[in-house]
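Annotated sample (chain length 103).
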Amino acid sequence: MAGISERVTAMIALHPPRQAEVLTRLRGLIQELVPAATEGISYGMPTFEISGQILIHFQGFKDHNSLFLGPEVGIRLATELGDMVPRRGPSSLKKKSYFQNRC
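Output written by the structure step:
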């Protein structure tokens, strides 16, 4: 039986090449920025957890990719960014200006 890492790689590989490339880069970025996070699959999506708490899920869909923040992450981001980030559900920034000077 394949390990979690191999299963996540296989899930990503099911997407079209360009989308799989973006998801692979996202996965690597999460691993780089949060080396203590453990990789898993939850709700049928690649997931990273810290101390048993969900940090983030990500998945590719027909026309887009999505990030789903864990509950604690959403609350902390909402505190910092105000109404730009929802506390629940898929993450979509409402104001692009926050990132214009940071990326």
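Annotation: The radius of gyration is 14 Å.
Annotation: Strands lie at 38-42, 45-50, 53-60, 65-69.
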